[in-house]
Give the backbone structure.
Amino acid sequence: METLPDGNQTIVYTNFAGQVVLKVFTRVSDGALWYDYYVYDSKGRVTSKAESSAVASYAEGSPSGVLNVTLNTSTGLIHVYVYYADSNPPAGGAPGRLQYEEVQQGSSGSPIKVREWQYTSKTVSGRTIYPVSKMILNESDASGGASPAGANYT
């Protein structure tokens, strides 16, 4: 917990690896709360981030250290991050790298693809790296993300 000079407070909850799971900012004058809530996969990659508008409540549970976060089912912005498979990714994919970002309204909302990344592979001194070769932005939410516009990187 951090108390700022104006009396407002920031509370940060982390997981076993020290990654931020929940960040709560409290304005002391009126008790207003703002949240950032993160979910990670077993490899430590963020798989979703809920903005303050998507967090309904949170509570420290029992046993000590258990954090219970409740998301709104139909309101609030949630970012969802999808990764390429760790082995045998499709052409233009890179093992374990970020494939695309989606947004949805509430925890039960329909995902809309916002951005997609494609990669190329380069082998240098026997080591393969995967730089981004193309980033695609969807300019419409139609059909879960449409009207793509891209930028190629060389």
About this structure: Residues 1-71 form one domain.
